[in-house]
Amino acid sequence: MNYFKEVEGLPVSLISERVKFTPAAGAVNASPTVQDTKTGTTTVGIIGKDCVVLAADQRAVMGHIADKGVVKVYPLTDYVGVTIAGTVGDSLALIRFLRAQANLYEIERETKITPNALASLLSNVLNNNRYYPFIFQPILGGMNSAPELFEITPYGGIMKKDDYAITGSGTTFAMTTLDQDYKKDLSEIDAIALAVKAVSAAKNRDIYSGGESVTVIVFDKNGHRTINRKEIDKVISKIKFN
Question: In terms of DSSP bridges, do strands 147-152 and 158-161 run parallel, antiparallel, or are they unpaired?
Fold first, then answer.
């Protein structure tokens, strides 16, 4: 079976044969007495001049604060990554699935999968499970011939962005910062600084966003790199909030 017979519009029937997930506790039809760890969350994606920056806070909650150092930004390939907002179980299951399918695509086609193709695949999977949904709202971005960024809803709605994307409980606070400070063709350094500032603004005001620092991964024509804690702390030290 050729799973990727149509890269940009993958048949839902093929997806159903491969993907048989069950919803995490906390989903619509799950027992109300069982809780899954949720990421609370503010996640941000920014398109720079020659890069995509993905960033997120580091708090996870389960009634109380469950963890202050959670990773919510993951590379799917060398050139494509995703942020997670929602339940941890659903998010990680879908990340494993996307990584496996990206590897399969590369083996079958002998070429790298594009951000657009991975976004289409994820959109189809989420829509196919809309009556028993994954608690998962990602931002997916990366490099093709140019930077690409997508915001995807839990029911499979997909929006291609040409500037920035935001998900999570801290969206309102991060959006204010991005609306004020975003400019076209940001350098990588400026895009990183703006992503950190936006997430930090949400951490400052949103009770469900927090953690010890901010996770940032940059994707460009050379691949991806995770920004180290020292660089992040340097950026945070220069931020002033009213």
Answer: antiparallel
Extract the tokens encoding 37: 């760890």
Q: What is the DSSP string of 8-62?
A: SS--HHHHHHH----PPTTSTTS-TT----B---EEEEEE-SS-EEEEE---EEE
Q: Is residue 27 part of a domain?
A: no
Residue pLDDT tens, the chain, 242 long: 343 333 444 433 333 333 333 333 333 333 333 455 555 689 999 999 999 999 999 998 877 778 888 999 999 999 999 999 999 999 999 999 999 999 999 999 999 999 999 999 999 999 999 999 999 999 999 999 999 999 999 999 999 999 999 999 999 999 999 999 999 999 999 999 999 999 999 999 888 899 889 999 999 999 999 999 999 999 998 887 66
Residue 80: inside a domain: yes
40: containing domain: 34-237
Q: Would 57 be classed as within a structural domain?
A: yes
Report if residue 44 sits inside a domain.
yes
What CATH number does the domain containing 179 carry? 3.60.20.10
Q: How far apart are the C-alpha atoms of 208 and 70, rounded to whole Å? A: 13
Q: Which two tokens mark 58?
A: 């580091």
* Number of separate domains in the chain: 1
**Nearest by Cα to 133 from 33, 25, 34, 23:** 23
User: Hey, which residues are catalytic here?
Assistant: 41
